[in-house]
Design brief:
- There is one protein chain.
- By secondary structure, the chain is of the alpha/beta class.
- It is about 25% helix and about 25% strand.
- The protein is globular and about 65 Å long.
Length: about 400
């Protein structure tokens, strides 16, 4: 068993950074304003990156910065400044894909820890060893590997080389995320962080002599989602991943909500703690198994970890399943009240569930509710309004108040 067993969470902005830290991440990964694979979440400029690192380090956690695009000639001249800013901010590692980028990191920041991105497509121990010999501290293995293949890579590489794997989140139909479909169809290069996700679109066939007559590829009048992969979920198999030699358990989702980051980080944190406490008798309580279904998600699968996936595609639609809504965020608790800030409308008399980092979610009925001027109210229907709920229960700051979505 690895001595690290790191829960690694995605961060797209400061709100999601606090969510990851509050709910138990050991480390976070994020992108700057350039060289990252999520152009839509390129939030961390120089000042924000420094602030993020200070916050993470104040809690004894680690920060990994992505530079895993394939930069063109015109971008290379900007890379030295990128590395300098990363060093000045205090990031703990850079995640790289391109071998030229790797060499420039070694040149500009010889002491910087380097992780090799899953985009590099590492599927064997020879490649992993070569990256280690070049100076890599960690390899993020391709998502197409089985547990047996991961175990063999672990057995045939130095123990100092850390192994990271994606264990939860969206899957890409292409090999290790190296897709040309988006660029081909809409000129948005997935390898430069601009993927339009055409694999999630519905498709029809058109016979060339019958123009504008469209035929579904599958029996669905809305089209066919022939490329649409299910989401990965390995929370029930933490033990098998650890036994195979995985050091870092990576959650996908830098472009997803702070609620997603909170809930999924919390779930894997709790699962990891349960595993560490008794590795030989790993079993999750039902409430924890249920947590991964309380965020917006596609149908789940276990990817390639147990061999070739037989049911990894979802043909019904390209959208998400969402069964819960966040209605408020806890700010503080005292004097028989839960003080919170509204996120979605909810009413007196409705049943809500409160998720904190401290344990299983708590269900309660909103018996009495007040606005910020202490007037009793029937509904919280103003965006971001301050309110309080009568209750003797106490929850940590930033705990989540949610309820089953109204259909």
């Amino acid at each position: 068993m690895s001595s690290i067993l790191e829960v690694l969470s995605p961060v797209g902005d400061m709100e999601r950074l606090y969510a990851a830290l509050d709910f138990g991440a050991d480390a976070v990964y994020l992108g700057g304003t350039a060289f990252g694979m999520r152009a839509s979440s390129a939030y961390f400029d120089t000042e924000r990156l420094k602030k993020a690192c200070e916050e993470v380090h104040s809690r004894g956690k680690r920060v990994y910065l992505t530079c895993n695009t394939l930069p063109r000639n015109s971008e290379i001249i900007h890379f030295e400044e990128f590395v300098k800013n990363a060093c000045d901010a205090g990031v703990d590692a850079l995640i790289a894909n391109d071998i030229g980028v790797f060499s420039l990191i070694k040149k500009y920041a010889p002491d910087m820890e380097i992780h090799i991105s899953t985009q590099a497509g590492i599927v064997n121990f020879v490649t992993a060893n070569e990256f280690y010999n070049m100076g890599a501290k960690r390899v993020v293995l391709a998502r197409e590997l089985s547990l047996e293949e991961i175990a063999e890579i672990r057995a045939k590489t130095p123990k100092e080389l850390e192994i990271e794997c994606f264990v939860h989140g969206a899957m890409c139909v292409s090999f290790s995320g190296r897709c040309l479909l988006s660029q081909y169809l809409v000129n948005r290069d997935a390898n430069r962080g601009e993927c339009a996700q055409p694999c999630r679109w519905g498709y029809h066939l058109m016979e060339e002599k019958r123009k504008n007559e469209f035929y579904p590829i599958f029996e669905d009048e809305k089209g066919t989602y022939i490329l649409n992969a299910k989401d990965m979920c390995m929370i029930n198999h933490i033990d098998k991943l650890a036994e195979a030699g995985v050091d870092s358990f990576k959650i996908e989702g830098r472009a997803k909500s702070s609620y997603y980051v909170s809930v999924i980080t919390n779930a894997y944190r709790k699962a990891m703690d349960i595993y560490k406490a008794d590795p030989k008798n790993f079993e999750l309580p039902q409430w924890l198994k249920d947590e991964v279904f309380k965020v917006s998600h596609r149908a789940y699968c276990t990817g390639f970890f147990f061999g070739h996936p037989k049911e990894s595609q979802y043909y019904e639609n390209g959208g998400y399943i969402r069964e819960y809504d966040v209605v408020a965020i806890v700010k503080e608790c005292y004097g028989g009240r839960i003080y919170a800030e509204q996120r979605n409308k909810f009413n007196k008399g409705e049943e809500v569930e409160i998720l904190s980092p401290d344990g299983a979610p708590v269900t309660m009925t909103v018996e009495k509710m007040f606005d910020e001027w202490d007037n009793e109210i029937e509904t919280a229907n103003h965006a971001a309004m301050k309110l309080s709920i009568e209750s003797d229960l106490k929850f940590a700051k930033n705990s989540i108040i949610r309820m089953v979505s109204r259909k």
